[in-house]
From TrEMBL:
Transmembrane feature ranges: 37-70
Keyword Transmembrane helix attributed: yes
Keyword set, alphabetical order: Membrane, Transmembrane, Transmembrane helix
Domain of life assignment: Bacteria
Protein species of origin: Xanthomonas fragariae
Protein name: Uncharacterized protein
Length: 89
């Protein structure tokens, strides 16, 4: 019967396609991993980018506060060093 061979080939093709879709074949697994990585960069980056920008802003504010503190300490030290000279004259 000529129709029986066609059915077997169609069934085998369906099994291969199903294995590919489920990621059980080598190329299907690779495609699934690639899509997972791409999804992380598309959706994960859109979630992480505002958090990273906020963290960068907080770091810059902390650096600015540290700089202001160092300037204040430098001015206090300068005043303390000039005080004995002012007492001499």
């Amino acid at each position: 019967m000529p129709g029986m061979g066609g059915v077997a080939v169609g069934q085998q093709t369906r099994q291969r396609l199903r294995a590919f879709a489920l990621g059980r074949s080598g190329s299907g697994r690779l495609l699934r991993v690639a899509l997972r990585i791409a999804g992380f960069f598309v959706f994960g980056a859109s979630l992480l980018l505002p958090l990273l920008l906020l963290l960068l802003l907080l770091l810059l504010l902390l650096l600015l506060l540290l700089l202001l503190l160092l300037l204040e300490l430098q001015l206090r030290l300068l005043v303390l060093l000039q005080l004995p000279l002012a007492l001499l004259f």
